[in-house]
Design a protein that fits this description.
mainly alpha
Length: about 375
């Protein structure tokens, strides 16, 4: 086997597209993380947000350590360390990806459906501790990191089987959990809250139909990358772009989509509130705005419309009372009273009251406009 030359044409041909793909992945993942953090208070399932953020964090770390492993390929010790760290973060990425399936499985089985229930410590153990244990076992059994003066992901480096094992293990676990969750749902015997969970599981299955084959096909190119130089370049680009596709996957999950819908609805409510004079800003609490798939929690501006109707009724009632009083006063001033005996002082007093009534009516009209 020829010695790896980090400054040769082939090495540069690998670096340029790989680094470009890594840069795209890191930028997109950072944007999605910022977006999820901004909307996290609108997501009712806090454990799910915790899972997505850890998934994206592990994926960004995997992309960054991929660049380090290529740059440190000339040095044995840094190459070995970067290879171990990249293996850990890649395994953690797959573990958090599988943790999403475990989360939905627990919800559909009624384990985490109640408000305030959390499994964060168990998810953390599954997403970080288990990958650390697997990497530690591999390091102790097979010291393949850094062989042949490089730590690149090739069949010659010795670390490729470790990555393939992690991919097969966790992708299989997630597939099984999602299938069991789908089969465990009985539409005719579950309440509405379970039906909402089932809608989210169905979306997760649809998205996983793309993600799981993609994460698996990467290693088909990895096992054949030693055959031709083009396959090796394609493998590195696909591996670097997995962070990009994971971020897209997280962005279009059902929970985040519902959070975006709630955020848009709250913005419309604020604009509607400000556009109606006399309507106090924030009269409808933001937390009362429900999600589109939860009919019991949907407000859809009904409180705003109700308050507006009440205000209009008050104004109409005030105007009718003023008109009625005005008619009575006019009749009294014209001498059409039953008694017929009205003194001049009483007539002056009536005229003053009439003037005040007209002024009050004009003020109501001005406020309405």
């Amino acid at each position: 086997m020829e010695k790896y030359d980090p400054l040769g044409k082939k090495a540069i041909g690998i670096r340029v597209p790989t680094y470009a793909a890594c840069l795209i992945s890191i930028i997109v993942q950072s944007i999605v993380i910022w977006h999820i953090v901004k909307l996290r208070h609108l997501v009712k399932d806090y454990d799910y947000v915790f899972t997505l953020l850890n998934l994206l964090a592990a994926s960004i770390a995997t992309t960054a350590t991929l660049v380090c492993s290529i740059e440190f390929s000339r040095f044995i010790i840094p190459c070995t360390v970067s290879g171990i760290v990249m293996h850990f973060f890649y395994t953690a990425t797959l573990a958090w990806f599988a943790a999403e399936g475990a989360h939905y499985y627990l919800k559909i089985m009624g384990k985490t459906i109640e408000e305030g229930y959390t499994n964060k410590r168990y998810y953390s153990a599954f997403g970080w501790a288990l990958p650390a244990a697997l990497v530690g076992i591999f390091v102790g059994v097979h010291r393949g990191y850094g062989k042949h003066d490089r730590c690149l992901l090739t069949a010659y480096s010795g670390i490729l089987p470790a990555f393939i094992f992690s991919a097969v293990l966790f992708l299989t676990v997630k597939s099984i959990l999602l299938l069991v969750a789908m089969r465990g749902y009985k539409e005719d015997s579950r309440p509405v809250k379970y039906k909402n969970v089932f809608v989210k599981i169905r979306r997760c299955v649809v998205e996983s139909v793309f993600m799981i084959p993609y994460l698996g096909v990467i290693w088909v190119f990895g096992m054949t990358s030693h055959i031709t130089y083009e396959l090796q370049v394609l493998f590195y680009v696909l591996f670097a772009l997995q962070g990009f596709f994971i971020s897209i996957y997280c962005y279009f999950t059902k929970e985040i989509e519902l959070a975006r819908s709630r955020s848009t609805r709250q913005g419309l409510m604020r604009l509607r509130s400000l556009s109606h004079q006399g309507l106090v800003f924030g009269r409808v609490p933001l937390e009362e705005v429900g999600s589109p798939d939860e009919p019991a929690g949907d407000v859809e501006l009904t409180e705003v419309n109700k308050q507006e109707k009440q205000d209009n009724q008050k104004k109409t009632g005030s105007r009718e009372n003023i008109a009625e009083d005005t008619d009575n006063i006019v009749h009294l001033a014209d001498g059409e009273t039953a008694a017929g005996d009205v003194s001049e002082a009483e007539i002056n007093e009536v005229q003053v009251v009439l003037l005040k009534a007209k002024t009050s009516e004009e003020n109501l009209s001005d406020n309405e406009h």
